[in-house]
């Protein structure tokens, strides 16, 4: 829970002016953006995209080294200030401490990106209660903690804001290979929609981002190498053939995240595979 990463700031603090050059600089320049799971993959790419827009970035990850690296690079890319915070998002007390620290030292977060997540494959009967707990603790509770703590600060400040939750196409695409993961993401999707209804009157938007397969550590490491790994591999290959989505870059997901905030989109299927699955699902927009 410690802030071992320490702050990585742009030198002496003074009035914050936008240094952003990205296409969203006007929208996000000088804003405070907190991204969880910012040490890798989609979270890191998102931190960079906000940095490019001149936002002040809080990079949160349970891995100190990678969060620190993200903050350093965010500064180089254009963030006037960037900090690394080492926190496990599933730890409610650590998240409370983080929320208090951020509000006290950096300010009220304008954009919160609850992105930290872990993968887990395995058939339903091969998924142990411990597995279920682990996945739900990070993927669902991490998002609940973030929304409760930072959403409350946004609401109390009364100047609007935006919350982005990284769900997944798995949220509307049943899979024998990923029951726990898919359930956690379906819950994140519904939570996002409920919270969107709750906060809409206060100028606070909530978006659920639903990528299909993206080229990050989560898809290339042991996370998804459970008992049904072979089947999952086959499914991924099929998808790749169908949609040509091999190597979908996290940067494109980051771009979709910034766009979702700008356009205040509720549910955003990102990859071609995810858009197809969304249209075929019961969550498809009605004509
Ligand atoms: P990744 O493994 O590259 O990055 C995840 C980051 O989150 C890592 O830096 C990790 O240290 C951090 N993290 C994990 N558990 C944490 C915790 N308890 N507290 C704090 N940090 C934690 O994976 P990614 O693909 O970038 O995943 C980001 C999000 O996108 C996840 O929620 C994932 O479920 C979702 N997603 C990914 C894909 C995909 O194909 N890559 C598809 C749909 C959704």
From TrEMBL:
Ranges of residues in domain Ketoreductase: 31-217
Similarity annotation: Belongs to the short-chain dehydrogenases/reductases (SDR) family.
Protein known as: SDR family oxidoreductase
Originating organism: Streptomyces hokutonensis
Shown residues in whole-protein numbering: 295 to 581 of 592
